[in-house]
Design goal:
It is a single chain. By secondary structure, this protein is an alpha+beta fold. The chain folds into two domains: 67 residues; 229 residues, Jelly Rolls. Helix content is 19%, strand content 33%. It is built from three helices and 16 strands. A hairpin with a 7-residue loop joins strand 13 and strand 14. Helix 1 runs antiparallel to helix 3. It is globular and about 50 Å long.
Length: 323
């Protein structure tokens, strides 16, 4: 039998964990964001066993716990990757990554990629990861092979269906979904960041910070976004060839997004369509709402508390029978 102290500690710990869940925040546009720990990376990156609970890494990747995850060093013919262990299954999300592309040479390459694909942790020829991928790839390409009239570094998105091949000789031009030039993204004087925001069937937007702090440049945006696999792993990879650079991931922040205004607006429109009925509509808490969450929390703690009291009463009764 457990001692009463252990059961009491278990009860308090369970309540503390449940009550301490991050409920996120809501911005002025009514978009509520809830952090996803499973797809977030911050120093020191690794646990006491020198492993990451939520990410795998390989190739030439080196992790310096106080500073960066270096996908490749500034040396030729290197490649490295880091991928989430669990898929990103949120319907709407925002991924913000801080990174650095830097080196000493005037000639440099090749760049790094951000992935949301069915495949994971598979080295290959596309910025250090596999070709013929299924999902979305965002390429931060620093070396120009053959794209006349295009200013490099160039940031480009490609949507793979499992059969398309990335044409490295022409910097992926034939299969480009959207993209933008980002001169100054390498050896930048400010922290370089990319923010990818996705609302299923509604929008996809990529913004980049590299000119000034808190100044976001719109790279591309569409109201007809591609379909991203429902099971897609978040990853980053990089490669160097004859030319090289340091490709560092500093941090990754992923959030689940929820449009509160859209939900309220839908409810309001539904109520307005029944204009003849002027009676107030009774508000019902739906499963998944915060009211329902706290109700379940109180119920959960109540059950544990009742069990604890019953157990202590049983112990006291049993002790009294001994005399």
């Amino acid at each position: 039998m457990w001692p009463s102290l252990s059961l009491s500690a278990l009860w308090l710990a369970a309540c503390a964990v449940a009550a301490g869940s991050d409920t996120g925040s809501t911005n002025e546009e009514g978009i509520r964001s809830i952090p996803l720990r499973t797809h977030t990376l911050n120093p020191p990156y690794l646990d006491s066993d020198m492993q990451s609970r939520w990410f795998d890494f390989g190739g030439d990747t080196v992790i310096r716990a106080d500073k960066y995850i270096r996908l490749t060093p500034d040396r030729g013919s290197r490649e490295g990757w880091i991928f989430s262990r669990v898929p990103l299954t949120a319907t709407n999300w925002e991924i913000e990554v801080e990174f650095q592309i830097h080196g000493n040479g005037n000639l440099h390459g090749d760049g790094f990629a951000m992935w949301l694909t069915k495949q994971r942790a598979t080295p290959g020829p596309v910025f250090g990861s596999t070709d013929r991928f299924e999902g979305l790839g965002i390429f931060f390409d620093t070396y120009k092979n053959n794209r006349p009239g295009t200013v490099f570094p160039y940031v480009m998105a490609m949507v793979g269906d499992g059969t398309k091949t990335y044409d490295k000789a022409n910097d992926g031009k034939d299969n480009e979904y959207m993209g933008c030039s980002a001169r100054g993204i390498r050896n930048a004087n400010v922290r370089t960041k990319a923010r990818l925001t996705y609302f299923q069937d509604k929008s996809l937007k990529l913004e980049i910070q590299y000119k000034a702090e808190d100044q976001w440049e719109l790279c591309f945006e569409t109201n007809e976004p591609p379909t991203i696999p429902s099971v897609a792993y978040l990853g980053f990879s990089a490669e160097t060839g004859e030319l090289s650079d340091n490709h560092d991931i500093i941090s990754v922040s992923t959030k689940n997004l929820y449009d509160t205004k859209r939900a309220d607006g839908s409810a309001n429109r539904a109520g307005a369509s029944k204009g003849k009925d002027k009676r107030p509509v009774k508000q019902v808490e739906k499963k998944g709402s915060w009211g329902w969450f706290f109700f379940k929390l109180i119920l959960f703690c109540g059950v544990l508390g009742g069990g604890y009291l019953g157990y202590t009463a049983w112990r006291a009764q049993k002790r009294s029978h001994r005399f």
